[in-house]
């Protein structure tokens, strides 16, 4: 499915925000409060109780949904009008080799231009910006729409009991999200240069192949499982997938592991295992992919066992003729930064996939991602300040549409 995205409809000079920017110290204080809480997946490190206290002070009602060690909460403000959601995660990946960090990864370190610490980019500063923008919105006017926050402590892990559960809760309670802004770090050089409007799906697969073990000098009595695996791999990597389009990268199958058990140079292996992963566009469903893979493998080796795992659906937010979140976000970015954002669907999977559907417009908009998951993860403070201003501008624009 190739979808051409519409060009920016409103000139860059369109202006909604004329309020003073958020107090820098308050915004940095929020970022510090989150980074200083050690929250390696799925531990929230106390981030949620802190965030809930902040949101309740603003008049939100918060519901915690915790399962299997994963902490999640939904916060809602108002009961009428269109629902505008922020979504994000408080968990971070482990810091890795501590000796390579210039400072404690769980103490936010601020110098004149940067903030450093685990989660500084992915994505505790994004949540800090959401909080500050929400506070400014509620302090500046009475709003006619609903605000909803979806926060999980399991995005970096399996994500089985994270945002998916929150979406299920919304569905069971008949709550429809009209717009959702995910605060993942999406920028390449500076905040606002890139907005994600979709992500490819992902599917992993393991193929177990049985041959017959034997002596390398007597191949006539054996069946080499690695030779069969080689044919299977050749067949898989020769499959032709969609090439994608300007807005969506094509589908790609990559072999990730080949194993034939313990190695001895005079034994023909009697079994082998091949692992691979497919990143796929919205042209395919999981079912269609599974069918293609199973058929391809079976044509080479009928007895091979095919097991699929870690399925992640793709999503793509389409531009719309009525109220278009993508256009409003472009205008907010342009108003705050003076640059036109690129629309992208690149990168790995994100929790946007659990939220997006035909009724809910989802975008991802956040700070630069060049240091995510690295030692000395950091961002420029100016990028955090820009993000907060963009969120505030976007909330104002959405409130005018509600
Ligand atoms: Zn993230």
UniProtKB/TrEMBL annotation:
Binding residue positions for Zn(2+) 2: 122, 156, 373
InterPro entries: ArgE/DapE_CS, Bact_exopeptidase_dim_dom, DapE_proteobac, Peptidase_M20, Peptidase_M20_dimer, Peptidase_M20A
PROSITE patterns in alphabetical order: ARGE_DAPE_CPG2_1
Keyword Metal-binding: yes
Reaction(s) the record says it catalyses: N-succinyl-(2S,6S)-2,6-diaminopimelate + H2O = (2S,6S)-2,6-diaminopimelate + succinate
EC number(s) per entry: 3.5.1.18
Catalytic residues of the enzyme: 91, 155 (proton acceptor)
Binding of Zn(2+) 1, residues: 89, 122, 184
Required co-factors: Zn(2+); Co(2+)
Organism superkingdom: Bacteria
Keyword Hydrolase assigned: yes
Pfam family, one: Peptidase_M20
Class of this enzyme: hydrolase
Stretches assigned to the Peptidase M20 dimerisation domain: 197-301
Pathway stated in the Swiss-Prot or TrEMBL entry: Amino-acid biosynthesis; L-lysine biosynthesis via DAP pathway; LL-2,6-diaminopimelate from (S)-tetrahydrodipicolinate (succinylase route): step 3/3
CDD domains with a match to the protein in the record: M20_DapE_proteobac
Family: Belongs to the peptidase M20A family. DapE subfamily.
HAMAP family per UniProt: DapE
Function: Catalyzes the hydrolysis of N-succinyl-L,L-diaminopimelic acid (SDAP), forming succinate and LL-2,6-diaminopimelate (DAP), an intermediate involved in the bacterial biosynthesis of lysine and meso-diaminopimelic acid, an essential component of bacterial cell walls.
NCBIfam families, alphabetized: dapE_proteo, PRK13009.1
UniProt-recorded name of the protein: Succinyl-diaminopimelate desuccinylase
